[in-house]
Amino acid sequence: MSEVRWERMFPDQLESAFETCPLVWYTYGLCEPHGPHNAVGLDALKAHGIACYAAREHGGIVAPPDYWHIHEMGGYALWSERAVGQPPHSWLTCMPPWQHFKNICYHLRQADTLGFHAAILITGHYGPNWQDLKTLCELVQPHIGTRIYSLPDHEANKPGFDSDNKSSGDHAGKVETSLLWALSPECVDVSRFPPEDEPGPHFAMGATARLSDRQIGERMVADEVRWLGDKAKELLEAYDREKPEHKLLTFEDVETLWETVIRPEFKDFQTMQSTWKGDVELPETSMWYRNWEIPDRD
């Protein structure tokens, strides 16, 4: 099996892969509660595993996964209170939205500096962060030569688990568990399911987790790889047609882009809101309260 993981490749392998297909895959997730039956790194494991399958099938180089992502703030804190509860430890690898998205700008700078024609950014972490990632890419694209596209992995998961012709995504339920089971079977242990009559929330275990199926996970992976191959071809053809200039080249370029283009829009990013829906208040006694309220970044 050919190696596609950037960090495991030798220089001559990287040069050959770049010459064959100048496409880079970026993957994002974090360590986060995913029930007692899944490894906590599910989000990034899932996104990175799918990208590796896609790169082996369609070409490109898979960048090292980024295991630090948005959590604890705003709607994520409210979700945690409801779905995770008050465990001894959360085992999160989290950071605030402004740090996460600026890091991504630096990732994209490296793609432009190296001359990649296209970049696909896959996040395995859900909530509104993936919508903000799309907004970020829309803001960055006019200032970068690399043609870029971002998505949550479930966007490519059609028709998904239920064959209902809709994108499928859940949290530690039958979809995510089946995907991880197919990609990294050693990271799923269904013997860890709690008794069915034991009240939850069971470390954010999805209500449909017991319906997980490794074979259906394998089918979903194949569906996503096929979809991603079409998107990669589209981006590479766009680069060849447009012949854009690579211009996001220095650290200062990134800082200028952040201050002049992204920061003025950042207050409207969905992950910068204290709630996702309604005016729910988080009790001060909650372990999630300390970072819930989002500070003014202006």
Condensed summary:
The chain is α/β, with parallel strands linked by helices and 298 residues long. Helix content is 41%, strand content 8%. The protein has a single domain, classed as Creatininase (Rossmann fold, 3-Layer(aba) Sandwich).
Outline type: globular
CATH topology: Rossmann fold
Helix content: 40-55%
Proportion of residues in extended strands: 5-15%
Low-confidence blocks of residues: none
Radius of gyration: 19 Å
Which whole number gives the mean pLDDT? Answer: 95
Task: Going across the biggest sheet, name each strand in turn.
Answer: 2-1-5-6
CATH evolutionary superfamily: Creatininase
**SSE string, helices as H and strands as E:** HEHEEHEHEHEHHH
What's the CATH class, please?
A: Alpha Beta
Overall number of structural domains:
1
Major beta sheet summary: 4 strands, parallel
Structural class: alpha/beta
Give the CATH architecture.
3-Layer(aba) Sandwich
Quantity of strands, as a count: 6
Cα separation of the termini? 49 Å
Q: Tell me the number of helical segments per DSSP (H or I, 4 or more residues long).
A: 8
